[in-house]
From TrEMBL:
The gene is kynU. It catalyses: 3-hydroxy-L-kynurenine + H2O = 3-hydroxyanthranilate + L-alanine + H(+); L-kynurenine + H2O = anthranilate + L-alanine + H(+). The keyword Ribosomal protein does not apply. Keywords: Hydrolase, Pyridine nucleotide biosynthesis, Pyridoxal phosphate. It comes from Halobacterium bonnevillei. Homodimer. GO terms for biological process: anthranilate metabolic process; L-kynurenine catabolic process; L-tryptophan catabolic process to kynurenine; NAD+ biosynthetic process. GO terms for molecular function: kynureninase activity; pyridoxal phosphate binding. This is Kynureninase. Pathway: Amino-acid degradation; L-kynurenine degradation; L-alanine and anthranilate from L-kynurenine: step 1/1; Cofactor biosynthesis; NAD(+) biosynthesis; quinolinate from L-kynurenine: step 2/3. The lineage of its organism: Archaea, Methanobacteriati, Methanobacteriota, Stenosarchaea group, Halobacteria. Gene3D superfamilies: Aspartate Aminotransferase, domain 1, Type I PLP-dependent aspartate aminotransferase-like (Major domain). Its EC number is 3.7.1.3. Belongs to the kynureninase family. It comes from the Archaea.
Length: 423
């Protein structure tokens, strides 16, 4: 007999006991929804809105003077946000900057580190988010390196996860860098960042990470782990809004590397407006900015970082792990038709859970139509992300209960295979 209590009242009780319960009041979840998609797009929050409104008002009141006279000055948004992001990813302030987008930052940093590396191969994995491979392949290509020969793709044994040992087997003295996600976008596996970094360094290669699915929900230690570089976005768990600015980290040992994608926003501040044809890099990670900071795509992050700092990344991680553990237990207990595609050990699990079902596409559409916002990732995954910022245990219970109902009532019959509703 399992001791797990799968009742709605038990979920409600856990919400009442949670130390972070007040957090969700700072966010507005779309009406009548159980929002389990915070790993795709976080929700609107009062803190983000106020920060964005402040930037808009300062544009109205100051015009061009806002670059220097706004509070904070638009001119150094990237550095100021970077200083604050450093805490969330375990870095020194000068090692982080808010800039560009994830994809652009992959281009910028993979290019930079390829130029600095002795080796020529980039080790990635077959379950990566595709944009990472597109960017890396093009960075290899512009250096005259055929991606078919120099992109080394580590395979998965189970289609869900990547073993650290398999990465170790793929790294050789020809490796320029290992570039891995912190969390796989489909299964939610959390990688061992420190171990992978050590593997790369044992072969004099660099270690870079895509933190898109962990920033704001996993407590990283990038500097301590010796990670060489990392990139991320702020529209997922950081809740800074659609199209919000990306971020990057470069270890201080590499501050002397010339950026592969140089631009005037990465120039040293004191000479940026000299408009000198020669690029003079700013100190630290700030040198990897490229063009003008997108002020309105960055401003909301000032507000949402207030929330991260108030809650504390450790406590957010703790709550996230408790929510995903609860979700896994409920799936085990109430959804025998479904499998859990996410590692069960907390230290190998990011912020979301892959609930596998042969009809995952139709299940996802049925859930969305019932107000449970999840997303489908082919071939068989319903991705469920109980963001610790605004999702409670009862929400998780409601999502699983709705899924139980979808399967019990034949609701799937209303959904065709072509993305259309049949009835
Ligand atoms: C793991 C991962 N990397 C990269 C990206 C692409 O980011 P962007 O479109 O902001 O460049 C995404 C988008 O969801 C992602 O999930």
């Amino acid at each position: 007999m399992s001791e797990f209590d799968a009742s709605q009242s038990a979920a409600r009780m856990r919400d009442a006991e949670s130390s972070l319960t007040g957090l969700r009041e700072r966010f507005t979840v779309p009406e009548d929804t159980v929002y389990m998609d915070g790993n795709s797009l976080g929700v609107h929050g009062e803190d983000a809105r106020e920060a964005l409104q402040r930037a808009l008002d300062q544009w109205r009141d100051l015009g061009i003077e806002g670059w220097t006279d706004a509070d904070p000055p638009w001119f150094d948004y990237g550095e100021r946000l970077g200083d604050r992001l450093a805490d969330a990813v375990g870095a020194k302030p000068a090692e982080c900057v808010a800039a560009n987008s994830t994809t652009v930052n992959i281009h910028a940093l993979v290019g930079t580190f390829l130029d600095a590396a002795d080796g020529t191969d980039v080790v990635v994995n077959e379950l990566d988010f595709p944009t990472d491979h597109y960017a890396i392949r093009s960075q290899l290509r512009v250096r005259g390196l055929d991606p078919d020969d120099h992109l080394v793709v580590v395979g998965s044994e189970d289609g869900r996860t990547i073993e650290t040992d398999a990465i170790a087997d793929a790294v050789t003295d020809d490796t320029a860098m290992v570039f891995m996600p912190s969390v796989l976008y489909r299964s939610g596996q959390l990688f061992d960042v420190a171990a992978i970094t050590d593997i790369a360094h044992d072969h004099d290669a660099f270690a870079g990470f895509d933190l898109a699915h962990s920033v704001g929900v996993v407590d990283h230690d990038l500097h301590f782990d010796g990670v060489d570089f990392a990139v991320w976005c702020s529209y997922k768990y950081l809740n800074a809004g659609p199209g919000a600015i990306g971020g990057l980290y470069v270890h201080e040992d590499h501050f002397d590397l010339p950026p592969a994608l140089a631009g005037w926003w990465g120039n040293a501040d004191d000479s940026q407006f000299d408009l000198d044809p020669e690029f003079r890099p700013a100190d630290g990670a700030a040198a990897f900015q490229i063009g003008t900071v997108p002020v309105f795509a960055a401003a909301p992050l000032f507000g949402t970082l207030d929330v991260v700092e108030a809650a504390g990344i450790d406590r957010l991680r703790e709550r996230s792990a408790a929510l995903t553990r609860y979700l896994v237990s409920l799936v085990d207990e109430r959804l025998p038709e479904c499998a859990v595609g996410t590692p069960r050990e907390a230290e190998r699990r990011g912020g979301h859970v892959a609930v596998e079902h042969p009809d995952a596409d139709r299940v996802s559409r049925a859930l969305r139509d019932r107000g449970v916002v999840v997303d489908y990732r082919p071939p068989n995954v319903v991705r469920v992300a109980p963001s610790p910022y605004f999702v409670g245990f009862e929400d998780v219970w409601l999502a699983v209960d709705e899924l139980r109902d979808v399967l019990d009532t034949g609701a799937l019959e209303a959904y065709g295979d072509d993305g259309e509703t049949v009835t």
